[in-house]
Amino acid sequence: MSRKLSFFIAIFLAIYSSVEGRTAYPPCSPCKCTGNDCAGTGLFPKGSKFVWPELIGIKEKDAVNQVLSSNSVVTPVVIYNQVTNITDDCCNRVWILVDQPGGNGQVENIPTVG
């Protein structure tokens, strides 16, 4: 069942990304760290941000822009909060869960690298 859900998530994100005019997210760069634990791994430029608690409650487009401006290595991936079975930890992705699909949602999680 989780493979089917993962496949659905990948298809949904690819379609959503193309509709929003964004490029599809890159393949996963697996890592064994999340959030600030990823600092010092050598994968990120000095001064990169890894956790964005201040983004809870703001509009998804603003959240995406803030993530992009504070860590150039990661790709923010917006996903509707009803899809909660994310099983991969990727050093190059930041999952942003929003309360409604369609581009006008508000962030409901603390976006974190990994």
From TrEMBL:
Q: What family does the entry list?
A: Belongs to the protease inhibitor I13 (potato type I serine protease inhibitor) family.
Task: Provide any one GO MF term from the record.
Answer: serine-type endopeptidase inhibitor activity
What are the GO BP annotations of this UniProt entry? Answer: response to wounding
What this protein is called in its record is: Uncharacterized protein
* Signal peptide span: 1-21
Annotated keywords = Protease inhibitor, Serine protease inhibitor, Signal
Write down the InterPro entries for this protein, in alphabetical order: Prot_inh_pot1 (IPR000864), Prot_inh_pot1_sf (IPR036354)
The record ties this protein, via Pfam families, to:
potato_inhibit
